[in-house]
Amino acid sequence: MTSPIRELRQLIPAQPASDGAGVRLYRSIGASPALRLDPFLMLDEFGSDNPQDYIAGFPSHPHRGFETVTYMLDGHMLHEDHLGNRGDLRSGDVQWMTAARGIIHSEMPQQNEGRMRGFQLWINLPAGEKMKPASYRDIPAASIPVVELPGGGTVKLIAGEALIDGKKTVGAITGLSTAPIYFDVQLPSGASFVHDIPEGHNAFAYVYEGKVRVGAEGAERELPHRGAGILGPGKAARFVAGVDGARFVLLAGKPLREPVVQYGPFVMNSREEIEQALRDFQSGTLTAPA
C-alpha cells in the first residue's frame, strides 16, 4: 500500500561541472543518463561571488526537443535569441523557453563583479510537441506569487498550484503537458512544509541552503545542502528545516514514458531524429518553420 507521505528514495549529490564557455556549476539531476527523472532531464545550480566562475557566460548555442527554465536568485543575465527575444533576467526573475523545433540563443552575464546565483532546469517535451514552433516567456519576480506559510516561511510558485491554509494560489506557469510543479520554499529553523503532489507525478527536491528532513513524521531522512532527493510514490511531500533553516526547490511533473535520446543540446526520441537535428543545424534550417 502506498504511503500518503512520499519518502526520500534516492539522494543525488550535486557534482561540480562546467558548461557554456566555462561557467562553473553543480549538476545533480542529469549528471548522467541514469540520473534523469522523467520528465526532468537536468538541474544545474550556478552560484559564485567570483566573476571568473561565470563571466564567460553561455554564448550562442542551439536547442531542440525540450524546455529550459532559468531562475535567477541573484545577479543579472541577458537572454537573446534568433526570434528577436531579449530578456533581462534579474534577481527573482524566471525565463521559460520552449525550444521545441529549434531555437538559437545566448545567456550572457551583465555584471563583472558581485554574486551570480540561480538554476537552469531542462524539462522534456512529449514527442508530439518536439517539433512545434519555439516560444519564450519572461516572468518578472513581481508577477510570481509568494505565499506565506502558517508556521513561518514562504513558498514561491513558479509553476503549478498550491493549496495552503485552505487557500488556492495559481503559479506563474500552468497548462503544460507535463503539468510541472516548481516551488521555491524557504523555511525557518524547525518549520515544516507539507503539500499534495499528484500521485502519478515524479518528484524531487534540491536543497540550496541549509538542510531538510524529508518524509513522514518519525521516519524522516536528511536531505543535505546541494543534494537532490528523489521522492517515492505518495499523495504528499513533507519537509522539516534543520536548525539553520533551509531553502529548497520542489519539482514534480507528469512522466512522459517515452524514449529519450540526447546529443548535447538536442533531446529527441530516436537516433534518427538526433541525426536530423544535427543536419538541420549544420544546414541552417534548425529554426526554420516546419
Word description of this protein:
The protein is mostly beta strands and 290 residues long. 4% of the residues lie in helices and 52% in strands. Strands 1, 13, 14, 17, 18, 19, 20, 21 and 22 form a 9-stranded antiparallel β-sheet that branches. Strands 2-3-4-11-6-9-12 form a 7-stranded antiparallel β-sheet, with no helix packed on it. A 4-stranded antiparallel β-sheet has the order 5-10-7-8, with no helix packed on it. A hairpin with a 2-residue loop joins strand 23 and strand 24.
How would you characterize the largest beta sheet? 9 strands, antiparallel
Task: Outline the low-pLDDT stretches.
Answer: none
The Cα radius of gyration reads 19 Å
The amount of beta strand, in percent, is over 45%
The string of secondary-structure elements, in order, is: EEEEEEEEEEEEEEEEEEEEEEEEH
* Category by helix and strand content: mainly beta
